[in-house]
Structures are given as C-alpha cells and as structure tokens.
Prior knowledge:
This protein is mainly α. 46% of the residues lie in helices and 7% in strands.
Amino acid sequence: MDSTDLRGGTRGDAEVRPIGSLHDLREHVQWAIELEHATIPPYLCALYSLDVARNANAAEVVQSVVVEEMLHLTLAANLLNAVGGAPVLDAARLVPGYPRTLPHGAPALTLELRSFGPQGLEDFLMIEHPSPPRAVPEADRYETIGQFYAAIEVGLRYLCESLGEDTVFTGELSRQIGSSYPYGGAGRVVPVSDLDSALDALAEIVEQGEGSSARGVWDNDRQMFHPDRDEVAH
C-alpha cells in the first residue's frame, strides 16, 4: 500500500481525515480494540442460542469466530502497546447497550444481540463484509472494517517514513502477548516491535476477518476444530 497516495482522499464530498501524528495513531488503535470488543457479544449470543448436540457444525464455526475476534483484540492491543499507548478495556464506553454501531463506524454498521438464525447471519455478513476493490482507507465513519485497518496501515507507514521507526515503536517489549501465552484458535499471536511485525499483525486481523483478495475466501490458517482442513475467512 502506497502511503503517499492513500494518506488523504475523499469519500463522497467529505475529506478523509488521515492519521498524521502518534496521538492520532494511538487513538485509532484504541478504537480498533473497541471495535473488536464490540463484535464479540453478538457472536457469543448466537453461539449460546445453539443446541450444540443438534447444530454441531454451526456451533463450531461461530465459536471459532469468537475466539479469533479475541485474537484480533489481542493483536490490536499488542500494536497499541508497541507504539507507546496503553490499551483501555475497562471504560464504560466498552460495555454499552445493544443495538449499537461499531465504534466510530458508519451508521449502517449496527450490531444487535440475536439468536442464531437468518437475521443474525445477515448481521455477521455486514460485520465481515469485504472492502470494495480500490476502496479508500477510512480512519473514521468507516464503511468496512478492512477500510479502517487500511487507514491504520497507511498512518503507520507514513509515521515510520516521516519520524523513523525508533520514534514510532517505543513500547516495552514485556507488554507484548506472544506464543508463550495459551491460544487454542486458528491464526497466530503476533508480538509487535517494528513496522514489519505491525503489518503482520494487521494482515492477520484482516485476512481472518474479511479475507484477502489475493487468496479469495481462504485465510491461510487451519480450522480450529479440524486442523487438517484449510480455513476460510469469516
């Protein structure tokens, strides 16, 4: 992704506000933590409504998504720690009522708590909807989660180019969650210490969620409950 081309842009008649400072970056990565946190209750509600004995396949898929959303929250927290921020998980805004919008997302991105069924599946398709081809990164009021993470990537690249990686990545390595911590889902826990590892963590989040245009529906991981099988994106 070319940061010089994508730092700015337009969405309709509105200017797309770029991430242009370390303060902006830390603020937006905190939003990413809140975004991932907000997706977990709808999936859990659908999971708890299922009779596992009668709907084992559906329960496995939804449970694997829940666990991977927790991974995405962890990766976002690793990134925020790496750039000198401090993840907040206990603020009142993280536990609002439902229905609600995705944090700082477009009004159409509304989450509700539903039992598993056709409407719940439509909600999940909205959450994981892939970004359109050549979609503009959106740092706020984003239309897809992928566009929001693209804006974070653009901001990271810009700040590393303009300030230097040593100025951007100032966090304590001891605050990183790595492979020594238990994790039973698909994908990888990526400790973040520099631009390459930050981009690796962002790619893990996006490819598990909406998928990668280069690989279609496959996310390059193995299924949580059937590790002999390839996994598709959410």
